[in-house]
Amino acid sequence: MALKFAIIGCGEIGGEILRNLTSIPGSVVRITRRNEKKGREIAAKYNASYFRDNKEAVRGVDVIFLTVRPSDMAGVMEEISEYVNAGQFLISTAAAISIEYMRKFFNENVISRYIPSPLITENGGVGIIAGDIPEKYSSIISGWSKKFHKVEEKDMHLYTILSSSGSAFISAALVNILDKLPCDDKDFCKKIVTDVIETTMSSVKGKGLDECRQIAEFCSTPGGITAEGIGVLNSENAKEIFSSVVSASLEKSLEMQKKFEK
Ligand SMILES: NC(=O)c1ccc[n+]([C@@H]2O[C@H](COP(=O)([O-])OP(=O)(O)OC[C@H]3O[C@@H](n4cnc5c(N)ncnc54)[C@H](OP(=O)(O)O)[C@@H]3O)[C@@H](O)[C@H]2O)c1
Q1: 61 close to ligand 1 (CB < 6 Angstrom)
Q2: Residue 121, pLDDT score
Q3: Which of 4, 27, 86, 252 has its CA 20 to 30 A from that of 64?
């Protein structure tokens, strides 16, 4: 029998999930978002149905994806809780919002939290999941990511930062390096940077962190050009900056949990 899905809050991440769901033969997908025009456009593109009403959208589906922002989670869960029945499986992508808090709205359901790194469709990305997940859905969702990990919920703040934010941090660091280079032909410099990212990432593919260290060492002739820059990266100042990056994100995650789990 065809599986029925609802995506509540079909924005960026909801859209990625929609693209993946519609590749399941015979699947039926309903989506909601506040902007009706955009909702109808994305629904039409992927042969899904747009619903104006979240309560109507969740009625009778097998799986409910909650892909609104953390600040909107409480309102949406309160709105639909009476319309969700015990047999429906709920998956939230919202950063910071715990399963324990979701239980207050859905006390009989199987619930999980799913953090996909962005770009899950184009490049495969990394998928992190916590909580209970029925096997048949686990095998569907794991296929959306190149790397898929089941983790303990208590560590989700940390894994959100490593997976979802991690790819953003690496990209932002490289953009900062590029911005500081005195390039006359910015487009050509950008091409070199993206070529380097692509080839470096493919050479560490399937290998461990040591491989990354080895690349740094291999490219750094002692006393040479690269070694000079790596020295700065390994300096106390740089370590402090990286430590502040991680602390800022972790603190924000904890702050959001406190603020939005009301
Ligand atoms: N972006 C990422 O890379 C990423 C990665 C992992 C996890 N996440 C998590 O995924 C969630 C979504 O992130 P996002 O980047 O996709 O945000 P987003 O693009 O803003 O999507 C959220 C969507 O929710 C809709 N929405 C808000 N309130 C609603 C309501 N009451 N009823 C129906 N729809 C409603 C919004 O609709 P309108 O736009 O029409 O107002 C919007 O399209 C967040 O909780 C975030 O923590 C994001």
Answers
A1: no
A2: 52
A3: 252
